[in-house]
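Late entry, evening session. Most of the bench is empty. Finally got around to the prediction I had been postponing all week. Sequence below, unchanged from the version circulated by S.P.
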Amino acid sequence: MRQVLAVVAGVVLSLEIIAAQVATTPNFPAAVPPGTNVVRDLAYVESGDERQKLDLYLPGTSPGPYPVILWIHGGQWNRPGKESHPMFPLASSFVADGFAVASMNYRFSQQAIFPAQIHDAKAAVRWLKRNAQTYGLDANKIVAWGASSGGHLAALLGTSAGAPDLGDSDDRVSRVQAVIDFFGPTDFLQMDAHRGPDGFIHNDPSSTESRLVGGLITEHAAAVRRANPLTYVSADDPPFLIAHGDHDVSVPHHQSEILASALTNVGVSATLRTVEGAGHNDPAFRAADIRSLVLTFLRRHVVVAR
């Protein structure tokens, strides 16, 4: 069902009221709660690529301004899209808790190699801040959340605010207030040294990391360093919540260990939850205890003024 709603600035938008979807686990809220107002395919880069668009999910039962979750989908930086990742229902369910969710697409590595993907993520943050009043958003309460390759981009958003080699001239315009990283890679050149016997090989020209940086990662050290969230860790980074399964054959659990350690070593609040027995994109990450962990983190670091 579609209806026209007046948004805060008086702009009339076509909004879709989405019915509740079936919960994936017992006691789990609907993926898109009833009454959610959805605005689709908003271009966050003017006259940009078709993939430089996002969807906004706005609470329909509480007044704004809403804190914002910027959801960045996984898929090896080359697929699928802003609604199709298995972790998306978890992220979008937080509309029920008064959060706006912005689910973004970004350019794939087969279209443009890194740093195009982080440029897009930073552009999406800037767009959310510029358009906060129009959509009833809180420009000072944005959390970046991603899974797998999306977790990599969320972590990089959190650590690289103001990094001139990634296109930031002012660290305030693309800075986020918190980061949630689900099993994202953080240092490409350490992945093979810590992979399990059945783990994916990353030091290979056909690996997703090599395709992201435009060549074999062991031969493109400068490009890899530029792409690693670990490179930019500093004491003024926002709080991090990191979750990773200890049976992940795609991204070794060690990738999250080294990020959490680097953050805490410089005094940044970083929590690492190891999900025992869980693999990559495991349904265990959509369980009620993980959702509770995320909600506690959001309420502590995003909803409450820091």
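Two things to note before I forget:
DSSP finds eight helices and ten strands in the chain.
Residues 51 and 302 are 28 Å apart (CA to CA).
Will write this up properly tomorrow.
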